Amino acid sequence: MNPPLRANSRNPLSQTRLRLVVSYVAVTAAIVLLCGGGFYSYVRWTLIERVDDTLKHVTQVVERSLVVKTGVDNRLSIDLDRAFASGQDDPAIERDLIYLEWFDASGKPIKSTALFRRPIPLERGYIHATVEVAPGHKLRQFTIPIRHKGQLVGYLRASHQWFEVDKPSQHLAIDLIVGACVTLILIGSAGWVLSEIALRPVHRAYDHLQQFTADASHELRTPIAAIQANAQLSLENPDGVVEDYRQSLEAIERVTRRMGKLVADLLFLARNEGRVAEAVESCNLVDILNLVVEEHRPLANTANVNLQFAPLSGAIVQGVPEQMHRLFSNLLSNAIRYTPAGGQIYLSVSQSSSKLTVEVRDTGIGIEKKHLNRIFERFYRSDKARSRAKGGTGLGLAIAKAIIDNHGGDIQVESVVGEGSVFRVKLPKLTEKPLADTVGMPWPNKA
Ligand SMILES: Nc1ncnc2c1ncn2[C@@H]1O[C@H](COP(=O)(O)OP(=O)(O)OP(=O)(O)O)[C@@H](O)[C@H]1O
Ligand SMILES: [Mg+2]
User: Looking at ligand 1, which atom is closest to the CA of residue 362?
Assistant: First the structure.
């Protein structure tokens, strides 16, 4: 296993985090802008409507109080002093917020309660308008034509100070802008912290993947170098004897076989780690263990290790038979690999109400305590030189663990250096299905 890789600042996940927060804030800003803008427009529109209603009400009150006089030349006129005096009873007028103006039928200004001097041209008809009487001083106006028996007498115009609309609108706009800024800062900060928490597992997975890629490349480099060296040796020796070429080819064949196993293991992990086993079926564990034991017996005999198996009838689990086979092959091959000549390996099955326990016990070299919780990591070998010498790549237990996890099981290991190890696999027991439904050994041995 290579030394752990350190995450660098150019890690794409840091950029992802930044991008995530920026887009989060941008989306929130758009929503705040939309909602704030809508609220602002609604409030301003309501204020204008209130002023317009007041103006309309005042003009109606004044219109009702108008007394039309007919002059000597039959021209109609208004008793302005009385009319404007009655209009002043209105509370809004009293507060000096509303001005009244009277124009004759030709549009000529006749009387005004307004304080401003600059005459504002008359807009004829029932019209609401906003006009500027001085820089920064605006009025809202409403004009109505006054008729008597179908004849136009003149125009009545009421004006209201515009600051009644402007001032609260401005305050509201400032409040909304400050509120939006504070909200965005808070959301940005919260997003930054939350994205860090949310991306933590992704960070771990990313580091894990980088480490895995580095380890896999490292493991593949050694056999590739061996193949290259053997090929070069043969090419540089055109006059060599057949035996030399045979040795090189045998070495290449050995190494490629090892590479093939490594690639197959990597593929298996890539496809199966972190997944729930699909296509599960009831499988008879004892059948599977019998096959595994018989397949490994020649290896155990060659290593001069005694291999015993104590089966148990009715040991049925829900699982993928091929994976079960692979799991116990890995455990048994380890036991044989790490048990010196003259040692013992004992395989047994026991059961509780809900679980089946398979125990692989050996009297081998054992594992130091400090390695115990790391041996299930990919490429981890407690004694690298020894394991490599025996053709190990450090993936067997990682595969075993992945299979057990996928099947909802559990694996424990106990070991004493120099005395031996026990690997205990617990799998959920299947009780509902009758034994007749269980699967035997229909798959080819791929271990
Ligand atoms: N029964 C055992 N006795 C002693 N050490 C063991 C035993 N089983 C596993 N180990 C230790 O755990 C390490 C990891 O085992 P694992 O099966 O993952 O890798 P490997 O056997 O080295 O290679 P591979 O199984 O991929 O060919 C081994 O290298 C070895 O150091
Ligand atoms: Mg192994």
Answer: 1
Q: Name the architecture of domain 275-437.
A: 2-Layer Sandwich (3.30)
Q: Which long-range contacts (CB under 8 A, 24 or more apart) does 7-14 make?
A: 7/203, 7/206, 7/207, 11/203, 11/206, 13/199, 13/202, 13/203, 13/206
Nearest bound ligand to the CA of residue 399: 1
What digits encode the pLDDT tens for the residues 179-203? 999 999 999 999 999 999 998 998 8
Ligand 1 site, residue 51, Cβ cutoff 6 A: no
- Is residue 396 within 6 Å of ligand 1 at its C-beta? yes
Q: Which residues contact 312 (CB under 8 A, 6 or more apart)?
A: 286, 348, 349, 350, 351
Query: Taken in order 139, 145, 146, 152, is the CA torsion positive or negative?
Result: positive
pLDDT in tens, 382-409: 777 666 667 788 899 999 999 999 999 9
Asked whether the CA dihedral 372, 375, 376, 377 is positive or negative, the reply is positive
Beta bridge partners of 138: 132
424 vs 351: CA distance, rounded Å: 12
Options 2.40.10, 3.30.720, 1.10.10, 3.30.450; CATH for 15-169 is 3.30.450
pTM exceeds cut of 0.70? no
CA–CA separation, 161 and 72 (whole Å)? 39
261 C-alpha vs ligand 1 centroid, how far in Å? 15
Identify the weakest region by mean pLDDT among 103-112, 122-131, 138-147: 122-131
Residue 380 alpha carbon, nearest atom of ligand 1: 14
Residues in the chain: 447
Residues 6+ apart with CB under 8 A from 69: 76, 77, 78, 79
